[in-house]
Amino acid sequence: MLKVENINLYYGASHALRGVSLSAAPGRVTCVLGRNGVGKTSLMRAIMGLQPVREGAITWEGQNITAMSAHQRARAGIGFVPQGREIFARLTVRENLETGFAPLPRAWRSLPDEIFELFPVLKTMLGRRGGDLSGGQQQQLAIARALVTRPRLLILDEPTEGIQPSIIKDIGRVIRLLADAKLTEWGDMAVLLVEQYFDFAKELADDFAVMDRGEVVLSGQAASMVEDDVRRYLTV
C-alpha cells in the first residue's frame, strides 16, 4: 500500500533522512522506533507531504505521490495524527472533528457512530472547547479527527507521549482494532506508528523499522525482532 524508497530529506545543509526505505501494508501495524532526534517525525512529515524530499520516491496504492501536496494526500486516503496532537484549542470537540470533512466528498461529511464507540468520552464533550480537554482526551480527539477522513493509511506520531497509562491502553486497543479491520466504517487499513517506548510498540507491531541518525538501521517482521538489538537504539 505505502512504499518509501531511498528518500533523502534536508533542512538547509542538515541531512535529516539518509536513503530511508519503508513499507506499510493493509491489516498490519508498522512501528518506527528510535530515540528523539533521529528523523522519525521528519519521515512522517515527508510521507504526509509536509516536508519535501530531495531524492527518492513515495508510492501510495501504486501511484507516485512524491510531488503531491499534503491536502492531495489526505484526499487520497492518508490520515495523520501529528506529534503534539495539534487540535484547535478554541474550537469545540464537534468542530474539531468536523475539520476532518475537508478532504471528503459532500456525501461522506458525517461523523461515524463508531468514532464514539471507540472514544466514548468524546460524545459527552462535543460542546466543550478542545483546549479544555486533558492531554489524553486531546489525543483521543486527534485520532478521532484523523479517522473522520476515512483513511486507508493512518499515521500516528508518538500518540503515547505524555499520556496517562489508562489512555495508552485505550489507544493501543483502537490501533489493533483498526489494523485488524474489526470496524465496519474503515475496513482494511495500514497503520504507521512512531514510538519511543519499546513495550507499547512490541505489543502492537506486525513489522518494525528502527532509525538512528536519519537512517533505518534495523527492520523486518516483529516475529524476527531481537529485543536487545532494538533496545540498544532506544536507550540514551
Name its key features.
10 strands, four-stranded antiparallel sheet, Rossmann fold, 31% helix, branched-chain amino acid transmembrane transporter activity, alpha/beta, ATP-binding, 236 residues
Structural account:
The protein has helices at residues 40-48, 70-75, 93-98, 113-118, 120-123, 135-148, 165-179, 198-204, 227-231, and strands at 2-11, 14-24, 29-33, 55-60, 63-64, 78-81, 153-157, 190-195, 207-212, 215-221. The chain has a domain at 2-83 and 152-231: Rossmann fold, CATH 3.40.50.300. The protein is an alpha/beta fold and 236 residues long. The strands form two sheets. A six-stranded mixed beta sheet has the order 6-7-8-3-9-10, sandwiched between helices. The chain has a four-stranded antiparallel beta sheet with strand order 2-1-4-5, with helices on one face.
Proportion of helical residues? 25-40%
Spatially, the strands of the biggest sheet line up as 6-7-8-3-9-10
The largest β sheet comes out as: 6 strands, mixed
Q: What proportion of the residues form beta strands (DSSP E)?
A: 25-35%
Fill in the CATH topology of the domain at 2-83 and 152-231. Rossmann fold
**Coarse shape:** globular
Q: What is the average of the pLDDT values? A: 93
CATH architecture term of the domain at 2-83 and 152-231 = 3-Layer(aba) Sandwich
Rg on CA atoms, Å: 17 Å
Question: Count of helices?
Answer: 9
Query: Would you identify the CATH H-level superfamily of the domain at 2-83 and 152-231?
Result: P-loop containing nucleotide triphosphate hydrolases
In total, the number of strands is 10
Q: How far is it from the N-terminal to the C-terminal residue, by CA?
A: 34 Å
CATH class group of the domain at 2-83 and 152-231:
Alpha Beta
Alpha-beta classification? alpha/beta
Low-confidence runs (pLDDT<50, min 5 residues)? Answer: none
- What's the helix-strand series? EEEHEEHEHHHHEHEHEEH
Domain ABC transporter: 2-236
GO molecular function: ATP binding; ATP hydrolysis activity; branched-chain amino acid transmembrane transporter activity
Family: Belongs to the ABC transporter superfamily.
Keywords: Amino-acid transport, ATP-binding, Nucleotide-binding, Transport
